Structures are given as structure tokens and as C-alpha cells.
């Protein structure tokens, strides 16, 4: 809106961000990411468009392209933002080794119990289960990085395999509790789940 | 086709099966179920219609209504057929109690490793994760029955909760291995998975 030089060269390339949008800088990037997260969460992967994200963020669609590229790349960035808390797993992994399973189970459930993080996580999982492009992002980007980080902190053989088995258990719990809402798991107290699940995670992550 | 009395009373109710179709009896029912399973597996819950199932089965749509009712009810019946092997869990639960986790893990993986059963299972899981109607069928019908049957055979407190935690682990493994295909789990040898997962299942199902 302000500060754009009216006589700057303006090549007619399609998808180039407008001066107004480009001038909005890092704030616009943050707004686009937030909008992308919401759009993917609310509409699902299929029905989300670059145009819709741009509209929700109050920027040109060209600026979304400019910062992130394709829809898949916007999705990857939105997923990364969502998983940011999970990517700082070393805080979970850092405590006494014998409490690792319990800390991980509690951390995982706390992320899912919070509606603000649950909704984008649900959207990501749903998208990954129904769209190969989204599955690829989760598989090749998020999960791989996450599992490698966890595995790097573990002192067990086959650490990545074990980390993935632990992840599979937690993803299964999220699926039954939050997506399918099957009882008795759906209504169980989180601490009751932690108490039951922690030893299984501990075995994967802490036993040689 | 044969044996339909030409002067049978024929109320003009919409959705009444044609005499030709109705006369096909149990074979038609089986064909409809097989077609429903294939249609739901290939098209997903959303894009599957009673009309499409009828066409695939070579019967009137009215006959599908006649045998099964609504689309949700056809889905429930198709899911039940798919889960039939899983519903005879007493064969798995019947052996020595100390091998229960291992037998269950091996049985579960063998069902998913077989492409003939994997494809409808994938379709059911995908449908349940994206459509509330399908989730309801899985939650209220299949999972509840399955968990109750398993729990009835267990000699542990909170048997249904424990059975569901075991199920959640297996569903999570199926999600990462067969749906998202995340490595190293996607390429792991089934027996390698059984060896790692069996003690976790054993703890849920066999320990007081």
C-alpha cells in the first residue's frame, strides 16, 4: 500500500508478486503461513487453493507463489510450522532415560489435547491419508526429520525403526481417540493413557 | 431371471426390487457385497453410490436397497465382510497366553500383507478418517464388536481399554507402513516388526 515506487520496472511475468504485497515483507510471510495452516485444516488438502490462502492472508496469490512455490510446498511449510513443537523433541528426550516413554507419551497427548494444535494435526493426518502429495510431504519431510532427530538422541540399535514404532503407536492412539473417537479410548483420562502407553514407548526407545 | 411369478402383486413403491433381480436370491446378495467392497475400496466412501454398486453387481439398485438399506448400511455390511477374519479372533486368542502378543501381531500383519484384504482395509480406514458416517460404522459397529470379543477372552483389568490400545498400535503401524509408507517401517520384514511389537501387545493383553 505504501512505499512502492510507482516507476519501478514491472515485468509482466505471471505470478510475480504485486508491489503492494511484496512490500509487506516478513509479516506477510507469517500471515500466509497462518492462513495456509487454517485453510488446510478447515478445507482439507484437496479444497485448499493458493488463491484461497492468499485471500485469507490478505495478499496477492503471486506473493504466496513467491514465498513458497507450489501448493505442495505451501503445505510442507504449513506442516513444518505445525510440527515445530514436536521438532524440539530434545527437550523431551533430554531428561532421565528411564522416564523417556512417559515424557514422550505425555508430550504427545498434550499436543493433541490442545484444540489449537489438534485441528491442524488432524488436517495433516487426514490429508496425508487421502492425498499422495500430502503423504509425500509427511513421509519425506516431517517424519524423516522427526525420526532422525529422535533416533540421534537414542542409545539403542535400529534407533530409527524403534522411533518409528513408537510414533506408530502414538499416531494410532490419535487416530482412534481424536479421529474415529472410539470408546473407551476417546473418553479416557490422558494420564490413564500415559500410564498404560509409557512402558511400551520406553521399551522401544530406552532398551538395548 | 427364472422362477418369478408373472402375476405376483407388484406395489409401485419406489425402490422395490424388480422380479428379475429379487429372484436371484442369496447369490445376488453375495455379488452386491463383493461389488460394494470393491466400489468402496476403489472409489472411496464419498464417490461410491448405491447405483454404482448395483451396476457392478449386475442387479437393480432397488435390490441393493432391499437387502441392505442405505449407503451407510451397505458400507457397514461391506466392512463386516472385510473384518470377518478379524472377528474370529478367538483362534488367535486361543493359544498359550504367553504367545498372545506375537500371534496377534503376526495375524494382523498377515491380513495387511495380503493385497486382497489390504485394499478394502485401506479403503475402510481412509473412509473412516474422512467421513463421519464411515467413522461411525467403524466406531459403533466393527471396533466395538471386535474389542468386546477380544476383551471377553482376556483375563486382565480394563480389558477393553487394553484391547483398544493394542488395536491403536496396530492401526498406527498400518497407517505408517501401508498408507504413508514411511521408512524404515514400510520396507521392514514383517517378522522383524512382529518381534519388536509382540512384547508391547503382550503387555497390554496378557499382564495383570
From TrEMBL, chains A, B:
Keywords: DNA-binding. Residues 49-68 bind DNA. Signal peptide: none annotated. Pfam families: TetR_C_16, TetR_N. Residues 26-86 form the HTH tetR-type domain. Residues 1-28 are annotated as: Disordered. GO terms for molecular function: DNA-binding transcription factor activity; transcription cis-regulatory region binding. InterPro entries: Homeodomain-like_sf, HTH-type_TetR-like_transc_reg, HTH_TetR, Tet_transcr_reg_TetR-rel_C_sf, TetR_C_16. This is TetR-family transcriptional regulator. It comes from Streptomyces griseus subsp. griseus (strain JCM 4626 / CBS 651.72 / NBRC 13350 / KCC S-0626 / ISP 5235).
